[in-house]
Every structure is written in structure tokens, then in C-alpha cells.
Amino acid sequence: DAGGVYEKLAEGEYRYTFGRRLPAGFDKTVTHTVGMYGSRNLSAFGMGTYVDNDVNTFVPDGSAVTVVRDVVRTATCNSRCHDPLQFHGGGRRKVELCILCHQTQNSDPDTGNSVNFPVLIHKIHMGARLPSVVAGGKYQIIGNAQRVFDYSDNAFPANVQNCQVCHDPAAGAAQSDAWLNANPTACGACHDNVNFQTGEGHGLGGVLASDTGCPLCHA
């Protein structure tokens, strides 16, 4: 959003009014999610900077929310490795917020690499074991102010074939078993020497025309 207005309602309580409105005729029957991140710099008082993220998921017509994406929980990232998970200067700290921007239509304009969340995260964690990197290439994302993020030397500190390190079934995510339903988006992130559209590198599997065919062979 841009051009919105903050109002202080009480000590520690604020209201934000959006500067932009949804277009007339938007679909009020589907799931909407609003995400917000903020920080408060108290370093002048020796207290550092406090950061918070939150999301609100709702259906505008008042119906119950039945469609969500809840695959990996932030708490799992923090308890296993990151402590805390933080990107873009430290202000984005929840997976629920990250996936709002890291969608299928987004890519790095400099490298052409997808920044769709399941592609980006799987490739970052695969790092040095990506076939493209093993073959002598680099896996890089160019960020703000042309800052280069090179993940070519990343080494996952566990067996990369153990999906449940991140997709922890005990974490409470509604779709924690999504890894069982293999698809070209997630699989192709790590197996980046396979072209599912042409069948190159896919052996007898050949061309995969849909995003649901992997379990037919990879049960």
C-alpha cells in the first residue's frame, strides 16, 4: 500500500487506513489476506529495534475461510535454524507474510530466476547441490540496489532428502504433508536440470503437462 494514514488511538494502539482501495466489482467470495510489517527503533534508549509481522485472512462477504496456504510454520524455521527468520533488512519475519509477495508471477528481473516461494526456498536450501551449480553455474538473486545474493555455496545442515526437517508434521501446519504430493514447481526447483515442458532430463517420464502428475510414478 502507499499513501495510507497512521493514527494513534492510545498508548501502543494505532490504526492504519489504507491509501488504496480495491477495484469496484472485486470478488468478495474468495479468500483475501492482508499482511503488515512494522518496526519501532528504541536504540536511543538502549532497547534496540522491535519488529512485528502479522496477517489477517478473511472472506469479504463474511463467509468462513476455507482456502489457506499453510505448509511450513515460521516457528519451525526459527527452532531448527534461523532464530529468527528475517529478510529484507530484518523486517519480514513470518512465512505467512513472505508468501504474499513470493508468488508464481514474480521473478528476479536481473537473472530471470523465479522468486516464487517454493522454488526460491527449495533452491536456496539445495544450494551447492543444485545440478546447475554442480555443473559449474551459480544460483544468485539480485536484490535491492543491485545487491547480489549468491547461494551457490549453501550447504543444508541436514539430509536434504528429509523433507520433514522443514515440513514438520508436529508443527501444526494444515498442509504440512504437501511434500508428499510432488509437483514440477517444487521438484524442478532442486532438479533444475529437468525441463518438464520439453521432457529434457526427465527420462521415461517425458513431458509433464500438468502440475499433478508426479505421484503417478513417484508415489
Structural notes for this entry:
The protein is an alpha+beta fold. The protein is built from five helices and six strands; from the N terminus they run E-E-E-E-H-H-H-H-E-E-H. It has helices at residues 74-80, 95-101, 117-126, 131-134, 184-190; strands at residues 5-10, 13-17, 32-41, 49-58, 140-142, 148-150. The strands form three sheets. A two-stranded antiparallel sheet has the order 1-2. Strand 5 and strand 6 form a beta hairpin. Helix 3 packs parallel to helix 5 (184-190). The longest helix is centred in the middle third of the chain and has 10 residues, at 117-126. The radius of gyration is 20 Å and the shape is globular. The model has no long low-confidence stretch (mean pLDDT 93).
